[in-house]
């Protein structure tokens, strides 16, 4: 059924199966019914297994205006005779996605986690040299900021500001700067790109790797580089 439904795109990762479809406001209900048919066929195909409706999530993405217009529309999907209503947010491979794709909730969570580790690192910071502090910050802080940061492309500076504050705090920690000290020279000496430039660098690496055959994007064979 999935192969016969061109409007539905499947994504598979380990034991996680995702079905996505796009439409205008007038055809949203029809797309939901197609998704139901696909889920039913998947359930029939894996007859020895059972889909868990409690772990099945439904998400509707769109602009704030379109989401408000859909408030009176039934966009639920039935999974194993259980009606699944749209969620306000879902977690996909550790990334929190909200319905408007503002990424504010995910960025807030990342920043909160980073500052949690900062409080732990400060307790041992005085007994560590600069190189050890740098290594710990890269391991516990920068890796969390860089994880899946390609989804931050195009976001305004106000949304990325919490991550940039984490960067400034990291530079102050490594170079033992005061809260009001400038961190520009410190960031240059550490060779740390600002948040927005790190996002651009990630996208360039992905595209260069795919075009040179060093990595593979599932959509590259169709030249659909906007789809992972």
For this entry, give a set of tags:
two-stranded antiparallel ribbon; 7 helices; 45% helix; two-stranded antiparallel sheet; 2 domains; single chain; elongated; 6 strands; alpha+beta; 228 residues
Short description:
This protein is an alpha+beta fold. The protein is built from seven helices and six strands, in the order E-E-H-H-E-E-E-E-H-H-H-H-H. 11% of the residues are buried.
Shape: elongated
Low-pLDDT runs of 5+ residues are none
Distance between the termini: 22 Å
Largest sheet: 2 strands, antiparallel
Determine the structural class based on helices, strands and strand pairing: alpha+beta
Could you give the order of strands across the largest sheet? 1-2
Provide mean pLDDT, rounded: 83
SSE series: EEHHEEEEHHHHH
Query: What portion of residues belong to β-strands?
Result: 5-15%
Counting DSSP H or I runs of 4 or more residues, the number of helices is: 7
Total of domains: 2
Rg (C-alpha, Å): 22 Å
Residue share in helices?
Answer: 40-55%
Total beta-strand segments? 6
Q: What can you tell me about this protein's structure?
A:
The protein is an alpha+beta fold and about 230 residues long. It has two domains: about 10-90, no CATH class; about 105-220, no CATH class. The protein is built from seven helices and six strands, in the order ββααββββααααα. The chain is elongated and about 60 Å long. Helix 3 packs antiparallel against helix 4 (about 130-145), helix 3 packs parallel to helix 5 and helix 4 packs antiparallel against helix 5 (about 155-175). The chain starts with 7 loop residues before the first strand and ends in a 17-residue tail after the last helix. A hairpin with a 2-residue loop joins strand 5 (about 90) and strand 6 (about 95-100). The longest helix is centred in the middle third of the chain and has 19 residues, at about 105-120. It is about 45% helix and about 10% strand. The strands form three sheets. Strands 1-2 form a two-stranded antiparallel sheet. A two-stranded antiparallel sheet has the order 3-4.
């Amino acid at each position: 059924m999935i192969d016969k439904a061109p409007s539905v795109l499947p994504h598979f990762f380990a034991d996680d199966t995702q079905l996505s479809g796009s439409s205008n406001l007038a055809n949203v209900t029809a797309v939901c019914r197609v998704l139901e048919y696909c889920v039913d066929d998947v359930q029939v195909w894996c007859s020895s297994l059972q889909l868990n409706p409690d772990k099945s999530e439904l998400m509707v993405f769109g602009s704030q205006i379109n989401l408000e217009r859909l408030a009176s529309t039934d966009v639920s999907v039935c999974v194993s005779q259980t009606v699944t209503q749209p969620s306000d947010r879902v977690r996909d491979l550790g990334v929190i996605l909200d319905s408007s794709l503002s990424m504010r909730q995910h960025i807030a969570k990342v920043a909160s986690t980073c500052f949690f580790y900062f409080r732990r690192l400060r307790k041992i910071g005085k007994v560590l040299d600069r190189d050890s502090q740098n290594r710990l910050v890269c391991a516990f802080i920068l890796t969390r900021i860089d994880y899946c940061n390609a989804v931050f492309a195009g976001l305004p500076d106000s949304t990325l500001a919490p991550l940039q504050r984490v960067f400034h705090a990291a530079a102050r920690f490594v170079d033992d700067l005061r809260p009001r000290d400038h961190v520009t020279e410190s960031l240059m000496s550490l060779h740390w790109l600002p948040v927005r430039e790190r996002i651009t660098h990630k996208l360039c690496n992905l595209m260069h790797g795919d075009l040179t055959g060093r990595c593979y994007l599932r959509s590259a064979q169709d030249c659909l580089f906007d789809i992972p």
